[in-house]
Amino acid sequence: MRVGTLSQLWRYPVKSMGGERLDTAALSLRGIPGDRGWAVFDESRSGVTTAKRLPPLRACRARYPSEPDSRLGSPPAEITLPDGTMVSTDSAEATLRLGELLGRAVSLCPLGPAGSEAAPRITAAGESPDTIRALMGILPGEPEADLSAFTPERLRLLRHGNFFDAYSIHLITRTTLRTLSRLAPESDWDERRFRANLLVESDDDGYPELAWVGRRLRVGTALIEVVMGCPRCVMVTLPEDDLPQDHRIMRTLVRETRHTAGIYASVVEEGGVREGDPVEVLD
Fold first, then answer.
1. What CATH number has the domain spanning 2-281?
2. Could you state, in order of their start, the residue ranges of all structural domains in the chain?
3. What global pTM score does this model have?
4. What strands, in cross-sheet order, belong to the sheet with 47-49?
5. Which residues pair with 222 in a beta bridge?
6. Could you tell me if 277 and 218 are in contact, meaning their C-beta atoms sit under 8 angstroms apart?
């Protein structure tokens, strides 16, 4: 059954930075080749970090000058810094300039070939409850997000050899964004805030992608399995390009959707996807 059309296709070469819109991509079992292919390593904390902890990362954008190969490690990506300067992820200048921007010593870590380990990341383990709530964008008195599915063992398996927060594909519908915009018209519900790989146009009302959890979707010639709704964190409130910081985004999500917007999915059958492809529910 057709449930929508692939409206936009996105890849994010460096974790937590702005990404690049694609016309087409060959989905592998690792997701879109090169997606989150690089990450920022915080030398003082000995782990990969994100814009949840270092918000200026969201002011940077990244793209690949050459197309990545899903079987190989990540090729160099080009970062555009907030002042417009462009640096390559494999250069000493990138490390220096990012360190100046973030106010701490950092380096850039690439993913290796399929099957290799990724650099360790900074986790919330051992953090105070107040710090964890701040990272999730939750105010005192608000209910916490349901993260029970992300047990330490589950996260270890999901994150083996990649820099994803959880699953390799994130999808959101324009319908969800329109629904949220009607509920909170004072906020700008631009799709860039949600950093999805697949933006789908759907004619249904409400939050249609949540009804696809546990089902398989055919997108182009690829097959993906929808695993769960995507719990949101403070990242959706951060400024990016012309989008202002807006904490009302999180207040609306906590109140209306229990922190959830969009879905996580895994690739179960490799194939090509392109903007304009139909999206079909198979089971």
1. 2.40.33.20
2. 2-281
3. 0.94
4. 47-49, 38-42, 106-110
5. 219
6. no
